[in-house]
Amino acid sequence: MSTQKAVQISRIGGTEVLEINQIPIPKPQPGQILVKAAYAGVNFIDTYFRSGLYPVPLPFTLGSEGSGTVEAVGEGVTKYKPGEQVVYYGSGSYTEYLNVPEKAISHVPEGLKLEDAAAILIQGLTALTMLRESYEVKKGDTILIHAAAGGTGLVLVQLAKALGATVIATASSPEKLEIAKQHGADYLVNYSGGEDEWVKEVLGYTKDGEGVEAVFDGVGKATFEGDLRVTKRKGSLISFGNASGAVDPFKINRLGDKNLKLLRPRLFGYVATQEEFDHYTQELFGYLKNGQLKLNIHKVYPLEDIVQAHKDLEGRVTTGKLVLKI
Ligand code: NDP
């Protein structure tokens, strides 16, 4: 067998541009591990590549992370052997076989199922690195987490609680808010009533109505203006995604009104070196092991149902993580 199935796009657009094609199985190059994939995680970023929000060269194989077993290793790779279970991030994971560089892969920790492993790296590392480096959350802080019942949101809520923060969580329905609560959120705000309403509610949960120490916002366009209103003087606004669209151009002198810090981090900038990746991956696995982090898989979709998976994620009907069975 020399070819394999892969979910690709050859043009940008809605879910109609998703294709399942046959592509060659690659050979591992020096420093790479060839993985036989079992599962792929589905992330919102995959929809940005598909829609053209984040431009990529076409044709493009979608998927940003997954889990599976080592099939073969390239020259110089000594840490991994065929048959071992691994979890990884990197481009092109909606496929049966892919090459992964050594600095983006880790052994699956004992006791973690492959299905769960595919659900953890991108959202888990994004949440952890932001709570450590974008704004270092401290015991006693009150922070706001938007889309708190989503994949990244539920990890943020649990890790922020583990670090001692008080968490105000937003979501678009009572059911989603209940899930955020079950994962530790202290205060719940349904933000579908409009900016003035959710801003007022959030401020009402903060000391003297002064606002939160930090906002973690993966919603983007729809919530950015409200974020500026609820962030406390000298607080941090971490805008890390565009689920509702990209944030409009912004005049930086507005930050001076409250001496705010505005960050727009990407995970890959926090785990760019082997050392950083290993450090945060091990810390993340530690939270899983000690029970402070629980994974929430919304649904495992067969690879053939990729259209439905993207529709569900973009249609706001999911909570937690979507996974593809390869
Ligand atoms: P989620 O599981 O969180 O799904 C997105 C959620 O966003 C929805 O469930 C929905 O929750 C909310 N949302 C608000 N407005 C909209 C809208 N107009 N359309 C669709 N959804 C909307 O996805 P992920 O966890 O994969 O990603 C969350 C965010 O984090 C994304 O913006 C993603 O790009 C970002 N991200 C950024 C990374 C980085 O490196 N910077 C890395 C990983 C993720 P509700 O119905 O409650 O509003």
Automatic annotation (TrEMBL):
Source species, domain of life: Eukaryota
GO CC terms of this entry: cytosol
Molecular-function GO terms, alphabetical: mRNA 3'-UTR AU-rich region binding; NADPH binding; quinone reductase (NADPH) activity; zinc ion binding
Record has Oxidoreductase as a keyword: yes
Keywords from the UniProt entry: NADP, Oxidoreductase
InterPro entries the record matches: ADH-like_C, ADH-like_N, ER, GroES-like_sf, NAD(P)-bd_dom_sf, QOR-like, Quin_OxRdtase/zeta-crystal_CS
Domain (Enoyl reductase (ER)): residue spans on this chain: 13-324
CDD domains the record matches: QOR2
Protein name: Probable quinone oxidoreductase
